[in-house]
Amino acid sequence: MNKKTYNIFIIGCQMNKSDSERIAFSLESLGYFPEEDIYKASLVVITTCGVRQSAEDRIYGLIPAVRRKNPEVKIILTGCLSAEKLVKERLGDSVDIWMPIVELDNLPSLLGEDSLGGHERDYLNLKARYESDFSAFIPIGNGCDNFCSYCYVPHARGREKYRDHKEIINEAKDLIKKGYKEITLIAQNVNSYKSADIDFPKLLKMTNDLPGDFWLRFSTSHPKDMSDELIKEMGECEKLCHHVHLPAQAGDDEVLKRMNRKYTQGHYLELIDKIRKSLNKQAGEIVSGFWMPPVAISTDIIVGFPGETEKQFRETVKLFETVKYDMAYIAQYSPRPNTAAAKMSDLVSEDEKKRRDEELNDVLGRYNLENNKKYLNRVVEVLVDSKNSRGEMIGKTKTSKTVIISDTTKSRKIGDILEVKIKSVKNFGLYGEINKDE
Q1: CATH architecture of the domain covering 243-375
Q2: How far apart are CA 297 and CA 380, in angstroms?
Q3: Which of the 8 DSSP states describes residue 415?
Q4: What does the alpha-carbon distance between residue 244 and residue 387 come to, in Å, rounded to a whole number?
Q5: Which CATH architecture has domain 376-434?
Q6: Buried b (16+ CB within 10 A) or exposed e, 79-102
Q7: CA angle at 333 for the pair 94 and 429, rounded to the nearest 5°
Q8: pLDDT range class, residue 274, cuts 50, 70, 90
Q9: Cα–Cα distance for residue pair 88/119, rounded to 1 Å
Q10: Which CATH architecture has domain 132-241?
């Protein structure tokens, strides 16, 4: 039996998932084989997240559990917490190898293996073992220069560094040639991209113009870098999915200033208006046989930021009522080490954070249902990405709406793009059946 097996446990964002795909390829190049059971693998790689305390706390329970059940295991810790001094002090010898993701090219020597390439390379240009055979993330850069006062990412990943556009386009070409149906360009601040004379609007157009039939997405954007040029290009890229994730983090100008976000509520709302005008040119029409829904807008929000008053929180509620988000990822503030916000006083109580979280979710649900009702009895395209315990297919529309699909023939499979007629809707989901005219 081959003893070189690995399991990668991913905590956190899409970037961590993409990083893990590159780690997997590197390990398999060294003769390791994937093992689904984390407690049976000879090598466990934990890709950590430092955004919230709850994400950090997970590793303090997981690593000792893996050690107890498999004393011979070798553990690598990578991701945002791999260089954090306090984490190292707490875990001590429980971790065998601490590997910031930028050191991935050194993995062979860290494991005592022969080198893969013989020279140092940017880890983003290493090959990936894609988890999916129809949908792929393409990382276009790493790091962050923004230093939002609550965020640990610039300390963990360093300053922004972007790939050469030729490397990105070549990776996209290869995926399209292999039949991939969905490509997502990702970075901590994807619209900050700059390489030589190529900025993100140009990169987006170059990717969109590649031959082939595929969906194009990007994430995550910073409002301060959402330029008029980018918004115009988004409206002209016919392969770009009509879903924009634009993190607001808060609705009050004073809170945004303390967060070091570099925009106001007014500027943010102007961006939303421009995005909708650019991407909603055909909304409500039948295009190539499908109903064209309005662009879907999602966001990230932090409630209970230090010093956030009830009046300031009401501005965030107002933002939700104005934008009418299709989805929002709401987090209760937790202090992160080495950030400016960790030193701020006038903390909001945990009970109050919870109350504000629940109120925003109620507002979100109300407008989400309102948005979803527009899909009733409409035929839309859905990319199937999984099945539930009842055997029903689950997929997403081009607006990133989750759809549960009834298919009595059971002839469709994961990775198919289907014509689906929406028969019913709930707050956070659509329910449909295969269009009989397909």
Answers
A1: 2-Layer Sandwich (3.30)
A2: 18
A3: T
A4: 25
A5: Beta Barrel (2.40)
A6: bbbbbbeebeeebeeebebbbbbb
A7: 95
A8: very high
A9: 28
A10: 2-Layer Sandwich (3.30)
Rounded CA separation 196/194 (Å): 7
Contact partners, residue 190, CB within 8 Å, separation at least 6 = 140, 141, 200, 218, 219, 220, 221
Q: For 335-383, how does the pLDDT look when each residue is reduced to its tens digit (9 = 90+)?
A: 988 899 999 998 999 999 999 999 999 999 999 999 999 999 999 999 9
In the beta sheet, which residues pair with residue 432?
405, 422
Q: Has this prediction a pTM greater than 0.90?
A: yes
> Packing angle between helix 165-177 and helix 200-208, nearest 10 degrees?
20
Sequence-distant (≥ 6) Cβ neighbours of residue 166 within 8 angstroms? none
Instruction: Place 261 in a pLDDT band, splitting at 50, 70 and 90.
Output: very high
Residue 27 has φ and ψ, to the nearest 5°, of: -65, -40
User: Residue 438: what pLDDT?
Assistant: 53
β-bridge pairing 43-48 and 5-10: parallel
Task: Tell me the DSSP string of 299-324.
Answer: EEEEES-TT--HHHHHHHHHHHHHH-
Strands 43-48, 33-34: parallel, antiparallel or unpaired by DSSP? unpaired
d(CA 352, CA 339): 22
Q: 243-375 with 376-434: one CATH topology? A: no
Q: Report the distance separating Cα 7 and Cα 402, nearest Å.
A: 28
Largest alpha-carbon pair distance within the chain?
64
DSSP SS3 for 253: helix
3-state SS of 97-165 is EECCHHHHHHHHHHCCCCCCCCCCCCHHHCCCCCCCCCEEEEECEECCCCCCCCCCHHHHHCCCEECCH
User: Hey, what amino acid is at 270?
Assistant: E
Instruction: Tell me which fold the domain 5-110 belongs to.
Output: Rossmann fold (3.40.50)
- In this structure, are residues 270 and 231 in contact, taking their beta carbons and an 8 Å threshold? no
pLDDT for 287: 87
The closest of 115, 117, 123 to 141, measured between CA atoms, is: 123
Sequence spans of domains, the chain = 5-110, 132-241, 243-375, 376-434
- Computed over every residue of the chain, the mean pLDDT equals 93
Distance CA 182, CA 172 (A): 10
